[in-house]
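Hi there. Long-time user, first ticket. I'm pasting a complex I've been working with (about 485 residues overall). I'd like to know whether the download I got is complete or cut off, because the file seemed smaller than I expected. Thanks.
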Amino acid sequence: MTQQYDLFAPTPQKPEKGEESFFQGDAREYVRLVSQELARRYETPPLAYVHSYGCQQNVSDGERYSGLLAEMGYGFTDRPEEAELILLNTCAVRENAEKRVLGNIGAMKHYKEHRPNLIIAVVGCMTQQQHIADRLKKSYRHVDLVLGTNAFIRLPALLFGRLTKNQRYFKGPEDSENSPIIEGLPVRRDGTLKAWVPIMHGCDNFCSYCIVPYVRGRERSRESASVIQEVRQLVSQGCRDITLLGQNVNSYGKGLEEKINFSTLLRRLNDEVEGDFRIRFMTSHPRDCTRELIDAIADCPKVCKHLHLPVQSGSDRVLKEMNRHYTIEHYLELIQYAKERVPGISLTSDIIVGFPGETREDFEQTLELIKQVGYTSLFTFIYSRRSGTKAEKLPDVVTAEEKSKWFQELLDLQGVIGQEIMDSYVGRRLRVLPEGPGREEGTLTSRSDGNLIVEFPGDPSLVGNFVEVQITGAMNWALKGEVVK
Ligand code: 5AD
Ligand code: SF4
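Hi, the file is complete. Here it is re-exported in full:
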């Protein structure tokens, strides 16, 4: 299913039938043309401000957009007011995030009044929805380019069109959410110690509340050779913490010609890539999470002893309405197996409060579940109605005020449980990766396998090398420790 699309291939890419002539052609050639044009206009590299909202998948996409921009000759800035190009990589999972993005785009209008040559591009999940792309075109006249979720390869041509002919571009039906995976894109990562590596794109689950399958399209896995090659290269460049990304990593391999599943991919990365590094992954779906996967976590020393297994709700009735295809009994069996097979495993989850039709009784079952499992931390969300999803039409009687109260109750309970779990680490030893200076003078901050923050006194030369730390204290946000000599 993956298409080897080498951006720097010597032969021109074949234009897709029906595309407008300006937007077809060889991306590599447009990268060259844009960089020539930029060199002609600017004495020093013009600056780009790239901001990604939302999940890690989006952050990872943002690194590919930045990679392309760097290839075209842009430098980078954290200050949008000094940028010649602003690229906002948007998220559509919740309405609040969308409102914030629209507000931010609106506020950028005044930058353009001072600098008419500024280019504003909006990409990502939000713009994949045609009604949003149309709205940006109509009501946000200062926006220049709007691209959907898989349109990386078109960016150079579109930028060239904007730079030389002042052409604006707004996503149309040709920006399909189902286009093939493009290999070989340049990536500009933040930092060198940690990296995201997407192993698949899209989602086939259609949970009834979720917009992702509509904006990111059907599941497409990358070939294992490409994933292994990328991980090997990252490790050789000094990367020590690699997170494999996908909306549902447990169904990795579906549709590939090679016979491979996610557990096998983990084992192969563990066995075939040499070096001192660790592997994380997210996100798992409880329906597809298998004992085989938990066995792989247990058996592979490089795989972190951490499982992010979003349960969403503690009520079977709500799970059915959410189209999640598992019961709490099944979920708890998996958790039990994970705790037995991987002693000390760190568990985390996502929970939605206030799904349409959720009753107080359903919500109390969620509270019960989180007591039973003992999560290290939770990602909690108030349900947000998304247009086009199945749940959009479900009656919702619980008031926003009531939902906020439940939400706070959930946070308070998790606060107590999380603290108990943090306290239980005191006296244990953890292997951690120091990442940089800690909050207090002379300390370093680091992450454990279970993704807990651990701060300890240490020399900056330890950054980037795994160390053993004896845990001496616990706060609610981090553990304290001392290096074991
Ligand atoms: N409302 C609230 N939370 C949502 N999520 C996905 N869609 C919605 C929605 N419409 C949450 C789920 C998912 C996480 C990434 O975002 O908990 O696991
Ligand atoms: Fe959304 Fe469900 Fe797919 Fe996750 S598994 S991206 S919640 S549809």
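A couple of notes from our side: The pocket of iron/sulfur cluster (ligand 2) is lined by residues 203, 205-207, 210, 212-213, 247-248, 285 (CB under 6 Å). The two ends are 50 Å apart (CA to CA).
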